[in-house]
Amino acid sequence: MARFRTWATIALAGALGLSLAGCSSHGGKRAEDARKAASAQGRAAVNTPRWTVAMITHSGDGDTFWDIVQSGAEQAAAKDNINFLYSHDANAQQQAQLVDAAVDQKVDGIIVTLAKPDAMKAAVARAEKAGIPVVTVNSGSAESRQFGALTHVGQDETIAGEAVGDELNKRGRKKVLCVLHEQGNVGHEQRCAGVKKTFHGTVENLYVNGTNMPDVQSALEARLQSDKSVDTVVTLGAPYADTAVKARSGAGSRAEVDTFDLNAKVAAELKDGTLGFAVDQQPYLQGYEAVDQLWLYKYNANALGGGRPVLTGPQIITKDQATALEQYTKRGTR
Length: 334
What we know:
Elements: H1 2-17, H2 25-40, E1 52-57, H3 64-79, E2 83-88, H4 92-104, E3 109-112, H5 117-129, E4 134-137, H6 141-144, E5 152-155, H7 157-170, E6 175-180, H8 186-198, E7 202-207, H9 213-226, E8 232-235, H10 238-251, E9 256-260, H11 264-271, E10 278-280, H12 283-300, E11 310-313, E12 315-317, H13 319-330
Parallel strand pairs: 1-2, 1-3, 3-4, 4-5, 5-11, 6-7, 6-8, 8-9, 9-10
Antiparallel strand pairs: 10-12
């Protein structure tokens, strides 16, 4: 544990002196674009001190959703004269170590996800004990206030799941397969539970290894082949929607594929009818508002939400809305 703490501290210190850490090559490019844009515009929109904010998420490598969150945070940071640092780890214990490293570096604010809150509780408490304000984002809305965070910015996952159930009722669906790609993620469990709460038909959960797309596809394909009564597949992340489409084809199924989250691929497949609908939680807004909240708190002791989460979703996106949003998904902000 101590060895990892040293490694994490060194890694974060390197980020202070070098480039912004990205969760993929796309994230790195967006970070560079943000720096160039800020440079071209001359200076930040504020004259406050150059505070440093660290965002630590539970993202795995190459997840396009987190590229969008990061992009929003970077844009707000450029505006707010903030030195923004991004790091991530899908392993909850290692994510907690990255928070500890940010505390050791004495950053001015921390943004963190609570996908696995029990593993993060002590690290968040350590930040607050050090006098570092914390904003939670994306996951962990139920635990955010309990852990002492300023506010939570994101989507209430139970409410989002309920919205999916309502939409499926309108579409006359009867049996849904809810695909969970990260075991132990409380937000994913809440989404599927929300679907079950409002959906009039049957909902079954399917747990898959989200780090291995071929395995996800084969597991889905096998399930659809063995149960022809499944008329809907709901995936919990945009990258998994296309995999579900491939599994549907391989299984000879006519099930509708719907998904949480939006990206350029999802928007295109909504337009051509490959997907039924998507649930957008506006990840760009999550990153942007989280940074803005910390700036407002440091500058003016402001806090958003009045003790409740600041909701960025859900928004049901269908074929009609996808056309209007496609330009934004292509630039990486939706």
